[in-house]
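To whoever is covering the structure queue this week,

Two jobs came back overnight. Logging them here so there's a record in the thread.

Job A:
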Amino acid sequence: MPELPDLEVLRKRVHILVGDTISSVDIFFPLTIRMFIEGTPQEILTGKKIDAISRRGKFLIFHTSQVNIAMNLMLTGRITVEHSSDHNPRNTVVRIVFESGNVLYFADYKKMGKIYVTTTLEEIPGFTELGMEPFSDDFTLSYFTALCTDTRPIKLMLTDQHLIAGIGNSYVDEILFDAKINPRKKAASLTEREIEMVYDSTVSVLCNGIFQIENRLKGEGNGKESGKEAHDFFNVHGKKGQPCPCCGNTLREISVSGRSTHVCPHCQEVTFP
């Protein structure tokens, strides 16, 4: 599932569409579209000029003067922008053609992603409940410390979109490895120093993710979504059985409240039955 760094990179790469006008909309899987405005997507979106593109949590939002187009890629959604509509990428569910000749393809093989068309973003389910953005000026150590009264495992706290927006399973594994914290440890049990380490790691790991993905996607066309190769900089996530880059011990996969989690048992002091 694309997370904050992936979507930040994607937002920059689809910036080419700002100032462009939608000329047609083709829908190959109708359930992807959620209309909060009366009318069909073709009627509402055709002729709309993209004024800006922003991100909120895991939503990528295309703003026009009258409506917002909010895309949630969910588990397998991918967005690409090409200067051709001769062929659709595999599993394309929605295609938006622009007057410039640019084409936005929304592909989603599990068909879980959603595109919301609305005048008011607050109508989108869960949008108003999104928590603090990690890159916000208000995401301070003091704010983060207040969150750490949570009695759940620190992994669950960090992935709770009501508390912090945009972080998912992959980057939390990286954050907690960077901070050398056991993901099963209750957030409320963290020491002051541990809270500070997790806070610092949250910001630095997300920033590094953006930097690394951008470097790996240089030279590709606008909007090419990051694949597995773009995340080869991960230290632990998805690397079960490989040596820890810090201590050399074997990385393991554990479950935290049902969530697959990758750790270094030595660096993060994770014990096994």
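Job B:
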Amino acid sequence: MATVNLGRIKPVFKGAYAGGTAFVVDDIVTSGNETFICIQASTGNATSNATYWTKLASKGADGTNGSNGTDLSTTLTTRGDLVFRNASTLARLPKGTSGYFLKQGANDPEWGAVDLTALSATSLTSGTIPNARYGTPTFNGSNITNLSGFSLGTNYLQARINTKTGMSGGNWNTLEIGNITNSGITGASLANGDLTLPAGTYYCDGGVMAKATESNALQLYNVTDSNDNLFSGMDGDNDGAQIATWVPVMGWFTISGTKTLRWRIYTQNGGASLAPAYANGYAGKTNFWKL
């Protein structure tokens, strides 16, 4: 029976191209991260020679190329470099100076120093900081001084509320402030159990302990203007004869001029007493901070 020579019936992968290797038709090689197939037997003819090779697969971007084919491995030269798109292609933004921040320029990103000049009336060398909320801070070239603002011990006072017994149920009962301590609020004074404060915005917190009462509400009353809308707090508890409950207040208020203020408490029943000594020294005391 006659034998028929079919020759090579499938391509054969030969690995990376080598100039000294004899290649025959349908050999497949790789070169320059691309793939080629031999179309004419030869030795020493590079894959760039279209007489002997046809490209099967071209390489794409490998992560170091820009969209225009520029090799960014030569563009990115320093640790910390950034790549951005300029008017026409990808570009390099060199590593910035330590302490600088990345900001948007007219068109492209750029590094810039932190600009603190707006904090000073003249320059960073010295000056008064304008439009400051707390006092009139100044900058002496290294430190901000004269910053009198919202902090414990500065523009602050504590008012102790005296014990009261025999409250009238269903009514507002006046509470007396026994004394004020740690007073750092200029113009503040105490007379007849009432506290007088100068104009300003204040934050207040604290409260009293109430015993054998029901649904208590504590209120800071504006005696000067007969206005009971400064702010208030309540506990909402039903308390037995031997139970004491904390009646808290916490909030902000603003007065337009010097005002005399008074604490008042409202209970659903008469109650036995207000007992400031029950809560570890904080009951029956309120704190005021002036902004």
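Note for Job B: The chain is about 0% helix and 40% strand.

Please reply-all if you pick these up so we don't duplicate work.
Q.
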